[in-house]
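Entry for the shared binder. Reason: the reviewer on the internal report wants the predicted structure included alongside the sequence.
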Amino acid sequence: MKIQKYISIAMTGLALSLSNASFAHVDTLAKNLKNNYPNLSAKVVGESPVDNIYEVQVAGNLVYTDEDARYFFVGNLVDFKNKTNITEQRQQELSQIDISQLPLEDAIKNVKGNGERKLYVFSDPDCPYCQRLEQELTTVNNVTIYTFMMPLKALHPNAETIAKKVWCSDNRYEAWEDYMLHQKAPSAPENCNNPVNQNIDLATRLNVTGTPTMFLENGQRISGGRSAQELEVILNTVK
């Protein structure tokens, strides 16, 4: 029994030693990134499955390097044996958000059917891909959709005005659908208290850079539009 106890203590000590060594390598990499590239927004986010190679987020992308931070591997890390795109999986994990932090009072809410499934959408009224998504959503039932209007003013100069007028409408969802599906501009004024600028700030904090961007109830991010069939599969697989 004493021998087993000593072995257990030794193994625990070894595990702690390896863990501390790992943190030391990560700290070294973080320092080297800062020293070598002071103007680069880079963050060490974890260890890769490859020995002594680490995951680094640069401008929202996942790249790989060693603790010296001199050479970078850019692209997908794939587990061929298990047919798994590790980079894609990690990007999805790292881009998840805490849905409870979303200010739902700043979104247009639409409950369809029993509304049991949830979808959170960042959308620009003049984005053609957003308009196409809205068309697809017309055939998706039993879902509650929260739409955060996020006009990309640099691309669509009139989108901010439309978004504000939609929010100032008596029936926001109806005004939104009329514009997105039929290009019928809202007639309401645009000078009411509205959350459009707050939504733009929120998108920046969440690293939402394009529209449409959707989030599921588990915080998973879905970038770009999807067909109604794809949305049904995605919504039904949320855990």
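Summary line for the report: Residues 23 and 29 are 10 Å apart (CA to CA).
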